[in-house]
Amino acid sequence: MKISTKGRYGLRSMVDLAVNSSGDQVPLCSIAERQNISENYLEQVFSALRKAGLVKSIKGAQGGYVLADHPSNIKVGTILRCLEGDLLVVDPDSVDDNSSEYTIQKCIKVNVWDKINESIEKVVDSLTLEDLVNDYKKMNDKYFPMYYI
Fold it and tell me: Which domains are assigned to the chain?
């Protein structure tokens, strides 16, 4: 399984939105500029995020986007599934589960593909947007020491 550009940019943009919103709407152009992503492409990404109920759009001159919920309630898995669909390493239709015979294909599905899928689900559903924001801030503090005068 490979996460597409849409999924990677979408997750980056959601973290950016959470970091920079402070409760206010954030213009898409500012996210695009900070993340070096095409604004036109982000419009498509945010359209999907809005339809999924993860962000809200505010129209007008001072418009932009806000998170639809607190970052602690938004799972990374929810964001990725919204943009990518199922997070499976192998298409489930490619394996014949209906056979009563325990084939090599079925053995591999049960012992490899299903376990990889479970691991992916466990990781992405254990992380929240808030976790990523907090880790980003901690990492940022390491690289930008505070000077007091």
Answer: 5-143 (1.10.10.10)
Q: What pairs with residue 75 in β-bridges?
A: 128
Nearest to 4 by CA among 32, 51, 33, 45: 45
- Give the residue carrying structure tokens 């898409």: 28
Note the pLDDT tens digit of each residue in 22-80: 878 999 999 999 999 999 999 999 999 999 999 999 988 788 999 999 999 999 999 99
pLDDT single digits (tens) 94-127: 766 666 667 888 888 889 999 999 999 999 999 9
Long-range contacts formed by 132-137: CB under 8 A, 24+ apart: 132/11, 132/15, 132/18, 132/76, 133/15, 133/18, 133/19, 133/71, 136/15, 136/19, 137/19
